[in-house]
């Protein structure tokens, strides 16, 4: 089967940073689906792994953790899907990725593809939707479905893939006032389109920016980028007994400034459930079911902003470079081999 991968980690401008290759078709495990991949999207995790994680000597590493496709075969313990089903999912960090014609994935982290989306648009959704949902409801424990509770959610880095979905979910499924940060005209316009009540500039002091829109304190802070740089500002603007959730990878992160307000600090990693096969691993299947239903009902929109051609090394290199530039808005997708 056709696939795209690498043999040694390194910068994206190296000629062999990503290469086209032929690999054997994977054999499904008992609870696996074998999926014929129709489209994939690129996420920051792709660039982080490609630049730092070395495959075993002489072996290739295939990246990709977002996909939409058709189930070709199932393992003998599969109960949730059958061949011919259209699906979307975000995969598992410890297994080969989705940048391949055929991909094996555990059914417990797979959802039914939204019928209203084409392959491209559907592939943009799973990883960021799972991350945003788990961050908001499982980690930060925002009140799901309660529209009258009030409170403020500050989303730092609202124009990226996770922020774009998080803003929508918070508007749809909570009563929180959603304040998102962005700094360029195009990103400001984007987060407003996603549904943010207010937009502030994260290149300016966040405390002053909140005060300028009449917001005193944030009950929830979703820090999606530059958490270490914004920590002291967050310590000032977060409400006593507030919750801070983060998804990025600061080199160090000293949370002592948050102690006097008894702030809860939580991390979200979408791969935790699949990596450790937690008892609630099937929760990701259920989340994707609900996300799919929200999309098909017209309440949640894909965050795809760019469909950049077929799945091959040259196109994936371009999308990795785009992500690493820090200029990406929403999600970029590739479809077909």
Automatic annotation (TrEMBL):
The keyword Oxidoreductase applies. SMART domains: PKS_ER (SM00829). GO terms for molecular function: oxidoreductase activity; zinc ion binding. Keywords: Metal-binding, NADP, Oxidoreductase, Zinc. Gene3D superfamilies: Medium-chain alcohol dehydrogenases, catalytic domain, NAD(P)-binding Rossmann-like Domain. Residues 13-334 form the Enoyl reductase (ER) domain. The keyword Metal-binding applies. It comes from the Bacteria. PANTHER family: QUINONE OXIDOREDUCTASE (PTHR44154:SF1). Belongs to the zinc-containing alcohol dehydrogenase family. Quinone oxidoreductase subfamily. This is Zinc-type alcohol dehydrogenase-like protein.
């Amino acid at each position: 089967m056709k696939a795209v991968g690498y043999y040694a980690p390194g910068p994206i401008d190296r000629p062999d940073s990503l290469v086209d290759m032929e690999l054997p078709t994977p054999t499904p495990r008992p609870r696996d689906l074998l999926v014929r991949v129709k489209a994939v999207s690129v996420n920051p995790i792709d660039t982080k792994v490609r630049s730092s994680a070395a495959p075993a000597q002489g072996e290739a590493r295939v990246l990709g953790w977002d996909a939409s496709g058709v189930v070709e075969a199932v393992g003998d313990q599969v109960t949730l899907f059958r061949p011919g089903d259209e699906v979307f999912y975000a995969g598992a960090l410890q297994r080969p990725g989705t940048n391949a014609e055929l991909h094996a994935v555990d059914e417990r982290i797979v959802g039914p593809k939204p019928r209203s989306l084409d392959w491209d648009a559907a592939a943009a959704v799973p990883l960021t939707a799972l991350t945003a949902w788990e961050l908001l409801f499982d980690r930060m424990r925002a009140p799901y479905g309660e529209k009258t509770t009030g409170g403020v959610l500050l989303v730092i880095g609202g124009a990226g893939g996770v922020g774009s979905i998080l803003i929508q979910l918070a508007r749809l499924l909570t009563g929180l006032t959603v304040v998102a940060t962005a700094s360029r005209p195009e990103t400001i316009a984007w987060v407003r389109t996603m549904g943010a009540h207010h937009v502030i500039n994260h290149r300016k002091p966040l405390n002053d920016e909140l005060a300028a829109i009449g917001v005193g304190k944030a009950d929830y802070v979703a820090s999606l980028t530059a958490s270490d740089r914004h920590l002291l500002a967050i310590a000032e603007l977060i409400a006593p007994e507030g919750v801070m959730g983060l998804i990025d990878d600061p080199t160090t992160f000293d949370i002592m400034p948050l102690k006097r307000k008894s702030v809860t600090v939580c991390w979200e990693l979408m791969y935790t459930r699949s990596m450790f096969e937690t008892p609630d691993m099937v929760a990701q299947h259920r989340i994707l079911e609900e996300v799919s239903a929200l999309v098909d009902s017209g309440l949640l929109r894909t965050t795809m902003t760019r469909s950049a051609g077929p799945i091959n090394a040259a196109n994936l290199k371009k999308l990795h470079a785009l992500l690493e530039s820090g200029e990406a808005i929403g999600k970029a997708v590739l479809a077909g081999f």
